[in-house]
Design goal:
349 residues; single chain
Length: 349
């Protein structure tokens, strides 16, 4: 008798699991190592060179130790947020084994030949259907051929992880995970705290360089004696443009209750934003509401497939076109937000 397998062992998505399904990552989880190096290498350089020298340059030892302590605490905070963003279920919608039978229709124009020469219509599932939100808003939801379900409102299928994710924002290669309903808060805090860390390291490195200039009375001599300060200032200045700009962009998205995916994919569509509840309520929804529990228990034992035959549905050319466009947009949103924005502007022109 075969040993029963757990859900994470037979998971159909491209996710990677650790510690027997307790931690879930995206398929590009190795990129987290690069992110860790980008954070830890400058911090170690700062503490071992700049902060250590500031212990003797500031007026009191207490201030010098405070500078080093703040740098270390900010770094730990950033790393914890990176872990909470990367290693948790972002809001994956469990797949169905079969299409929803109540929505299956039969296409008489396309049929398959069965025994005896009879023609049997091919079962199909409508591409979209309308659902009511909050008892007042009617929206169209799309059917996902991969997950065999109608995606909930604001849900989208990530072509990188191969999962439907609730309130899908984008797939972030820097954290190796989808950003969705259950980890968006931590992602935003990770980005903003990284920007604050860049500002702090830049300011303290500039302070150390100033002390060197005052001591030697010459800028070039000070740079020669403290090259780490100049390198850290240039490094933080460069990355502050990235994380700072990203933080400002997501502040705008939160204030209007949009996701990155909605902003880029539906930017050309005019009309009132369906989910905008006002700036204050939008921020409260992101930061002050309880995070929903995961809809997946990856450590439970997987259920065996039902004995009834599966319903085979036909993928239409329109669905295949939508899927290809979705794959392209997912990768562009995660890799370069500026690139997809420029592409959309060219299409509009």
């Amino acid at each position: 008798m075969a040993k029963p397998q757990r859900v994470y062992q037979v998971w159909k998505g491209r996710n990677k699991f650790m510690f027997n399904g307790r931690l879930i990552f995206g398929p590009d989880a190795k990129s987290i190592v690069v992110t860790l190096l980008l954070i830890l290498v400058p911090i170690v350089t700062f503490c071992s060179n700049v902060a250590r020298n500031l212990l003797h340059e500031v007026s009191t030892y207490t201030t010098g130790y405070a500078i080093m302590g703040v740098a270390i605490m900010l770094t730990v905070y950033v790393l914890v947020l990176l872990f909470l963003t990367s290693a948790r279920d972002p809001g994956i919608v469990p797949r169905n084994l079969h299409p929803p039978e109540e929505d299956v229709t039969y296409d008489s124009s396309a049929s398959i030949e069965t025994g005896g020469g009879t023609q049997t219509p091919i079962p199909r599932v409508p591409r979209t259907k309308e659902v009511l939100i909050d008892g007042r808003i009617v929206v169209k939801v799309k059917y996902c051929d991969t997950c065999k379900l109608y995606r909930p409102p604001r849900c989208s299928h990530c072509s990188v992880c191969d999962n439907c994710v609730e309130r899908f924002d984008h797939h972030c290669p820097w954290v190796g995970q989808c950003i969705g309903q259950r980890n968006y808060r931590y992602f935003f805090l990770f980005v903003t705290s990284s920007a604050l860390l860049c500002i702090f390291i830049f300011a303290m490195s500039a302070l150390h360089l100033k002390y060197q200039i005052d001591y030697y009375g010459n800028v070039w001599k000070a740079i020669k004696e403290s090259p780490a300060s100049v390198i850290l200032m240039a490094y933080c200045f460069f990355f502050l443009w990235f994380v700072g700009g990203l933080a400002c962009f997501h502040l705008y998205l939160i204030s209007t209750n949009q996701t990155t995916y909605e902003n880029f994919r539906y930017r050309r569509e005019d009309g009132v934003r369906l989910y905008d509840r006002g700036c204050l309520n939008n921020f409260l929804e992101v930061f002050c509401t309880k995070i929903k529990p995961s809809r997946n228990n990856f450590r439970t034992y997987a259920q065996e497939n039902e004995s009834r035959p599966r319903t085979h549905t036909r993928t239409t050319p329109e669905a295949e076109t939508d899927r290809r466009a979705k794959v392209e947009d997912d990768r562009e949103i995660g890799g370069d937000l500026l690139k997809i924005s420029k592409r959309r502007d060219v299409e509009e022109a």
